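> call design_seq(struct)
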């Protein structure tokens, strides 16, 4: 049964202030990450104070927003942002890249790890589950409701008509709801990794598995997502995920090589 997307991205308004699902999902993601990180720090007997976690979350949020927006503008924005430079700052309208956001969080994690004198790989393991769950929320509650980052045209029974799109003959155009595919992908990663969280692994294993699983599943989903740009025969998403996958492989190789020593 096909679906006509008429969802309002604005949850409610307070005068001229609009509260959007997109921003709400990010806020909820930050809250979930905060709570999960605090719980894991306690289980791992890390002597972190509330102010320490606050410090990391602040750095992670700033790093994520800056690099997520920067990557989107550079790799997905085409000429639009060069012609409309002020729109670079309109993050409430959507347009954040996971790959850039991930880099921002990693940089914040490296800074925090040095400050706390812990391995950044340990912190990476602690962030794997919150990252997966947060991405699921943002893809469904943010991107899908926003009617953005949708899939390629299709005739499958669950196709979605976004923004009243029609073809040249006036017929409704239906697309893969690739945002929902991505949400399901991230939930799957969460449930695959959850049973492994308390296992005895070399530090960095869980984070490496997250990166590799994310890259593999996202690479596949890109075949159903409307491509914005290509790098050769690969979509930009597939191209960037090659580096995510190689990063995961590199971490896994490093951790097990270090263990053997």
């Amino acid at each position: 049964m096909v679906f006509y997307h008429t969802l309002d991205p604005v949850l409610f308004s307070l005068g001229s202030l609009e509260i959007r699902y997109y921003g709400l999902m990010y806020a909820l993601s930050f809250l979930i990450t905060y709570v999960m990180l605090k719980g894991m720090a306690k289980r791992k007997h890390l002597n972190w104070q509330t102010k320490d976690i606050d410090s990391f979350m602040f750095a992670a949020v700033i790093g994520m927003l800056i690099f997520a927006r920067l990557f989107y503008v550079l790799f997905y924005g085409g000429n639009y942002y060069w012609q409309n430079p002020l729109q670079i700052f309109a993050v409430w309208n959507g347009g954040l890249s996971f790959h850039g956001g991930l880099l921002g969080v990693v940089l914040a994690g490296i800074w925090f790890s040095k400050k706390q004198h812990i391995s950044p790989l340990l912190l990476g393991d602690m962030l794997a589950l919150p990252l997966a769950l947060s991405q699921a929320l943002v893809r469904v509650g943010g991107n899908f409701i926003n009617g953005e980052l949708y899939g390629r045209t299709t005739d499958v029974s669950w196709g979605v008509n976004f923004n009243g799109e029609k073809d040249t003959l006036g017929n409704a155009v239906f697309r893969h709801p690739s945002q929902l595919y991505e949400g399901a992908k991230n939930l799957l990663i969460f449930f695959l990794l959850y049973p492994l969280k308390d296992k005895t692994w070399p530090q960095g294993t869980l984070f490496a598995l997250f990166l590799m699983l994310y890259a593999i599943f996202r690479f596949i989903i890109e075949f159903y997502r409307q491509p914005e740009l290509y790098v050769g025969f690969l979509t930009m998403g597939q191209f960037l995920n090659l580096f995510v996958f190689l990063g995961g492989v590199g971490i896994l190789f490093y951790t097990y090589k270090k263990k053997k020593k």
